[in-house]
Amino acid sequence: MSATIQSLESRRVAAGQSVCMDGISWVFYEAFLSELGERSAHRLSYDRGELHIMSPSPEHEAYARILGRVFEALADELRLPYKCLGSVTCRREDLERGLEPDNCFYIRNVQAVLGRRRFELRRDPPPDLAMEVDITESSVDRRSIYAALGVPEIWLFDGAALTFYQLREQSEYEATARSGTFPFLEAEEALPLIHAGFETDDMNFKVALRAWASARIAAASGG
Amino acid sequence: MSAVQEAATPPAGADEPRIVLRDVSWQFYESLLREVGRRPALRLTYDRGCLELMTISQLHDRYKCILDRLIFALALELGMKIRSGGSATFRRADLERGLEPDACYWTAREPLIRHLHTVDLSRDPSFDLAIEVEMSRSALDRVAIYSALGVPEWWRFDGDVLRGFRLGENGAYTSAEESHVFPRLPVDGLVPFVHQGLNLDETELFRAFTAWVQQWCNET
What we know:
- The complex is a heterodimer of chains A (223) and B (220).
- In chain A, 39% of the residues lie in helices and 21% in strands.
- In chain A, β2 and β3 form a beta hairpin.
- The longest helix of chain A is centred in the N-terminal third of the chain and has 21 residues.
- The N and C termini of chain A lie far apart (62 Å).
- With 220 residues, chain B is an alpha+beta fold.
- Chain B is globular.
- The two termini of chain B are 30 Å apart.
- The N terminus of chain B is likely disordered.
- At the A-B interface, α1, β1 and α2 of A face β1, α2 and β3 of B.
């Protein structure tokens, strides 16, 4: 085993790669999830037989955390209760779809997940907000999976732009200039924060975010 | 040896994306093989808990087909017995290793497996020659798996150069200019034909290469 890990480290796979397989049964998708275990960094997307496995790059992971921190700074300032479930697997056997968000939050439905060790989407509501990082132009349509699962809002960062998506009536997402969760927040103004978060250490970034959130919310409520 | 290989192999390419999963059980590897079945575009490699899933590019597959034609022509011209193992999955549960070669052949050992419709490497002799098209580098050490399986010779084509390697008594492969499988054949003699193969139809390629083999036989 140690020899394998050694050879892996010397012959490192370029992170951010993905592999797609079709004709995969739901039973096998679940077997795949349990084989990889909770600690796996891989992101699986399953859509009616098609299984996509992605190995996120460190940059990808960093942006997912930064998006979460922007959300948390605003929610903390607003005293808005939320629960971060990170890349928890969201799946529904009845819909034959599942995925791990890059990051996700329960806000409106926060009560449903408090104290939960396991959660089941068929019984529990979906996350209220999912964060997606797509810096490798993934060919997989993860948004249609989010739509089927009924996730009301997605923040998508593609390496250059931040887009907010709101789930509409026909189970389709509409790109909006402002966040549904924070109606005062424009994608344009959050974008520089995301770039800054990548360049700054976490402590200073959080301090700066807190100051920004405080001023931003004061301005929004002050009119 | 490993240093030579590191230097000579191209990095993992975007054209052939792959994923490596760690701490994967043998049972899971077998169930994945059953689930995805025989799908030529997806290559699985398993080595003691690590599983690589790799997508094969079209060009990779093309080189593999060309090399297969050349090897068949060689056997035919040299009057040798040959059996192709293709890209079937060869695995040994006892060694916890398994892979799909790009191509593989029994030659000297062909009579030993002639009567077998399916070969089981935990019981039957392994192939004499494996072909690896390395358009991009595998994250797992496939060569060490060939060594564990007891494959005496393998050839690597990296999109530019073809090189042969022989298994030594210490279990490591060393670069060999001449093949043992096809006695004294200079492996790099095939290179021009592999490149020409991209621009010729396969019957033309077969004829041109056959003429070269005949000429080489006459000269030696």
